[in-house]
Amino acid sequence: MPELPEVETIRKGIMPHVQNHKVQEVVIRQSKLRWPVSPELREEMTGQYITSVQRRGKYLLLGTAGGTLLVHLGMSGSLRILAHNQVPQKHDHIDIVLEGSKLLRYTDPRRFGCMLWLRGDIYSHELLRSLGPEPLGMDFSGAVLFQKSRLRKTPVKSFIMDSHVVVGVGNIYANEALFLAGINPRIAAGKIARQRYQTLVRCIKDILQQAIELGGTTLRDFTDSDGKPGYFKQALRVYGRAGLPCTSCHQKLKEIRLGQRSTVYCTRCQR
DNA sequence: ACTTCGACCTGTTGGC
DNA sequence: TGCCAACAGGTCGAAG
Fold this sequence. Notes:
Helicase, Ruva Protein, domain 3, 4-stranded antiparallel beta sheet, 8 helices, DNA-binding, 271 residues, alpha+beta
């Protein structure tokens, strides 16, 4: 579920429920996530006011005066706002219980996500320090991609999915952006011209922006049950459509694997 | 410095 | 219907 547009939608969805609210209790039912969840999370976050809800790439950052909760949803994680009396289910690992009537519940069947309590300057933390630019920010441009890609032999799809190059471009949107840009995903990143990177950057920004706007409408209410976004299903041009006709030229879409990830493209439209 | 690959998990799907 | 392998929206870190 979580690519950048989903994470941004979740951020906007939970913000009004958690910002300026006081943490009454932190319940850790399962501490074995990608990294162990430290008891310090409970010890130090309890009693704090959540002052900010930010996003960096696919990380969510809940700021307090005493530290920051860094959340990543991995492949299967989700966050929901629920009532205090909602009974936890099998994969409901952590609750941030707020004063009043609500709690923020972290659910993650595969447990590839993480919840880390950080103190001090969070941007100097290992996980955040060397991240590339935000794809929707001003400092993500064709010039940047072009410059970073010189001499790199890795396929352009793997390249744009590398968080040190640019954050937040996951498998779905990498496939979609390359289709829109008309670029074959297996071309070596270092062999792509500056001009084409400008096109690619425009496509990445467009597809992410569009997905955020759609996500915003279907996932507006975070007090609902699982808000599983069905929004992009219809908008997807290549992802999940291997063997089906290209929406542009009707050629059968091809599926290959790049970096162990499913890659779908049109051999006629993407060169 | 760059690339590849295993690892972390559970749930779902498709083939036999 | 059941069983088993393959695969799934991520990404770190080790090894080459």
